[in-house]
Amino acid sequence: MKNSLHVALNGTPEQFQRLRELQVAFAAVCNAIAPVVQSTRCWNRVALHHLVYRNMRERFPDLGSQMICNAVYSVSRTARLVLQHPKSPWNVNKQSGAPLPLLRFAPSAPVYFDRHTLSIKGNVLSMFTLDGRMRFALRLAAADEARFHQEKLVEVILVATAGGFELVFQFADANTEGAVTKMSARGLLPEYVLVIPPETTPSLPSAKPPLSRDVPDQLASR
Q1: Could you give the number of structural domains in the chain?
Q2: What φ, ψ does residue 130 adopt, rounded to 5°?
Q3: Which of 39, 108, 109, 187 has the greatest number of beta carbons closer than 10 A?
Q4: Dist. CA 3–CA 210, nearest whole Å
């Protein structure tokens, strides 16, 4: 069985516009956080949260506290892929002490949800948007619905598709390296992330806390 479940959202044009606005706002926060990773060399989720949370809440008040947390998670997750994956040309272990590149997230980048920003009750899906909760009718096959009771849910991601949006529910499996490593097994970066070499970005002061080697946290503990 695949460890991800893709669920297309059946919504109106107005609902999809609200989701697009959320997606653009989420990417903007990620792009505001990314320079901090570059300048401080910190991408541990907890440490990065302490560095940026207050400032991001002030700069992006409409996004809410939990979505700021989810944006921190998104940046931390992507930085692990870019800076730690063995096949990445920017792997820090191959370039000890070298300046870090800058990550840039496209407006099409996925939005990460958690138990505070998305819930399912019966056949109704409720999710956060910039102007209040939005609800969708959710019809799952019995086998898919059973997975939410039998398996551990790790991530929930909103992804744009040609026809609208879908949610990707990522379940845990026996691979202790986590979804980031598996996703990048071919050595390819997600199409929504641009890695800008350090020589083409402004020089910023750099504090150097210990480098992170963490893996994605479970959804319930984020």
Answers
A1: 1
A2: -65, -20
A3: 109
A4: 32
